[in-house]
Write a structure and sequence with these properties.
This protein has 331 residues and is mainly alpha-helical. It contains 13 helices and five strands. The chain binds tryptophan.
């Protein structure tokens, strides 16, 4: 039997190249050797996305992204978190085994408190209970389906460690191996993925490049990547250039070397470099882009795929909840 790789993506906006390189591509690579359980974490997004139309649109975008990039819903479990009521039941049960101190120490919560305190505000200003209890819901996501590994970004390490700790605690308490002990795994480091302004690509810096853009929109977007003011004839340093840094993440070593040589030789302007970047992005993502926009124009297809995933996932989640309820005596 193959081991299980599980991860979720929050539908908080349009997936960008940073999400692709840091999370989606590595998770898809793991489907070759693991059984994949990949889902849309919509109730996690609810801590910030509180508009129905926006949530619905984001869910379709994340679903279409996974599918366009090749996640096979037949061979994997692919579902929407909110379709699995057992996850919320398990989340409550696990929260009763979770020391409150864990939540106090959770990075996202602590960061908010630190910012509020620095601004002279109430420490808990703008902290909703969803944000505070976020890790308990994530524990349920992970433990419900017996995840062996959880591919995530480094920022999620602590959350997976909470899930480990709670699983161990629960198993010990009931003297039974109810939950598999999950392990976080991190994508091979791609280094920082630069956004348009050279800072780390992030929605909060407003410097993202969407994974899927039509060629003319992509051209416009790449036009905004910040470069220096060197003229065409001047020799240029590839390694300090944001365009080159992005190029390198998609190109083969040979392509990378060839472009570096053109930088150093001079006679190549920023427009040329950006055209090379566009070409390599097109090569990688062009086919998937067409599939993505096709899916988005047929949301009923996405609905069907998610309904199928829900059916398959609930066979497992119901069995797990039966087991848990039996131990808790609530059954
Ligand atoms: N918290 C994760 C993030 O912000 C998303 C997520 C929700 C998740 N549930 C999960 C990731 C379970 C891995 C496993 O990226």
């Amino acid at each position: 039997m193959k081991k299980i790789s599980l991860t979720g993506i929050k539908p908080t906006g349009t997936p960008h190249l940073g999400n692709y390189l840091g999370a989606i591509r590595p998770a898809l690579d793991l489907t070759k050797t693991y059984d994949a359980v990949y889902f849309i974490a919509d109730y996690h997004a609810l801590t910030t996305v509180q508009n129905g139309a926006e949530m619905r649109e984001n869910i379709y975008k994340v679903a279409a992204t996974w599918l366009a990039l090749g996640l096979n819903p037949e061979e994997s479990l692919f579902y929407k978190q909110s379709d699995i009521p057992e996850i919320f039941e398990l989340s409550w049960a696990l929260s009763c085994f979770t020391p409150k101190g864990f939540m106090n120490r959770a990075h996202a919560y602590k960061d908010k408190v630190a910012k509020n305190t620095a601004a002279g505000e109430d420490p808990d200003a703008n902290v909703n209970m969803g944000l505070y209890c976020y890790p308990c819901l994530m524990d349920a996501d992970i433990l419900m389906f017996g995840a062996d590994i959880v591919p995530v970004g480094k920022d999620q390490k602590q959350h997976v460690e909470f899930a480990r700790d709670i699983a161990i605690k629960f198993n010990k308490h009931f003297k039974e191996d109810v939950f598999t002990i999950p392990e976080p795994v991190f994508a091979e480091s791609t280094g920082v993925i630069p956004g348009l302004d050279g800072r780390k690509m992030s929605k909060s810096y407003d410097n993202i490049i969407d994974i899927f853009l039509q060629p003319k929109d992509l051209k416009k977007k790449l036009g905004k990547i910040v470069t220096n003011s060197q003229g065409i004839e001047e020799p240029k340093d590839p390694d300090s250039c944001n365009v080159f840094k992005l190029y390198k993440l998609f190109a083969t070593p040979e392509q990378t070397e060839a472009l570096a040589a053109r930088y150093r030789a001079g006679g190549m302007g920023w427009g040329h470099a950006k055209a090379e970047l566009q070409a390599v992005l097109e090569e990688h993502l062009g086919v998937a882009r067409d599939k993505y926009f096709d899916l988005l124009s047929h949301p009923e297809e996405i609905d069907k795929i998610l309904a199928y995933g829900k059916e398959k996932a609930r066979v497992k989640s119901k069995a797990m909840m039966d087991k848990v309820r039996n131990l808790l005596g609530t059954y």
